[in-house]
């Protein structure tokens, strides 16, 4: 995975950049304030003026120049003026330079702050020779600190702030990562212990990053596992329940066959036993098909299909059964193809079940109508029969596995056909409905998205 596409990477990068910027600006600000207000060694401007005068009187201009260089090294730009002339070169702003004559004539000491972070001092001193001189000094602090000392203080403050902010950011990032990871570990342990309802959910502090996506994937996986296990348990319970009756009949038939007086009588029982075995085989096959569909087992071959041709093929295959029951099949379809995307084998099985169910419940000399049409991005297959219909209270249960309504005594079956149809339609993103027709009979409608408008679930 490319780390530059990771939201966790960008989250870490952004927060550490923010921490460094905070350290830079806050460190500079606090250092200046620390120098201004917490350093106890304030500059004694009067003593500084006397010291400058002594250096000049003791060694002249060279000695004063050396003294000025030492003071500049300690962060103070200073010189002596005599009769309005600087005894040692100094760089002063033009506005201050213009105000010096007036300050010298005032005959008093001056301490000003022309702008924040800058101090100006004008001190009058009388030499041993009786000459009046003036000290002019500029300093960016009101305290006597060497630049190296200020640099060390700045470095110390920035280092302390860096450790503090990096520690806070590191703690926050570690917490934001550890919280979902711990939730995932706890959920995994509970899942392993058999608690299939376990979900991670959205934990506090969980961002929209890879960990949140992992938690969502875990929840989807857990939900899927729980559904599959619950379904398998349900299928096993239903199958064991439904197999009891045919197995009991088979046991009774074989017992009667053993008690038969001759081979002819036993042959009748063996024929009945064979029919029961066929029913058991058919029921087991339908149960396996339903279980496979409920489990959404991958590997289906899907393609664009002409629903009209698919229905027409199912009608042709059902003709023989319909003729045996004296039921007429009538298909109404558009003159153009109705294209859907899906599995030909599954859709054919669903249509066979629908058609077979309609034929099975139709009265002799009855009629089953099939209609295929498409509108608004939906393809629809309608199957109408004139059978007994279904009581309104039982319509909602019609597609439930093993459900056999009050009219089921009119036909053989296990209550799995329509359940298989519903699941086939569902995995194709469609819908299956059933309603009673006016005048008797059932109207079953199978709706599927047209090709390009659906995706298999």
TrEMBL record:
Task: Supply the SUPFAM superfamilies for this chain.
Answer: ATPase domain of HSP90 chaperone/DNA topoisomerase II/histidine kinase, HAMP domain-like, Homodimeric domain of signal transducing histidine kinase
| Assigned EC number | 2.7.13.3
Q: What is the lineage of its organism?
A: Bacteria, Pseudomonadati, Pseudomonadota, Gammaproteobacteria, Lysobacterales
Location, primary (coarse class): membrane
- Entry's localization field: Cell membrane
Swiss-Prot/TrEMBL catalytic activity: ATP + protein L-histidine = ADP + protein N-phospho-L-histidine
Q: Give the species.
A: Rhodanobacter panaciterrae
Q: What does the UniProt keyword field contain?
A: ATP-binding, Cell membrane, Kinase, Membrane, Nucleotide-binding, Phosphoprotein, Transferase, Transmembrane, Transmembrane helix
Q: State the protein's name.
A: histidine kinase
| Annotated ranges, domain Histidine kinase | 238-452
Q: What are the HAMP domain coordinates in residue numbering?
A: 175-230
According to its UniProt record, this protein's enzyme class is transferase
Q: Which InterPro entries match?
A: 2C_sensor_his_kinase, HAMP_dom, HATPase_C_sf, HATPase_dom, His_kinase_dom, HisK_dim/P_dom, HisK_dim/P_sf, Sig_transdc_His_kin-like_C
A Pfam family the protein falls into: HisKA
Membrane topology value: Multi-pass membrane protein
Question: Where does the chain cross the membrane?
Answer: 12-30, 153-174
Give the superkingdom in one word.
Answer: Bacteria
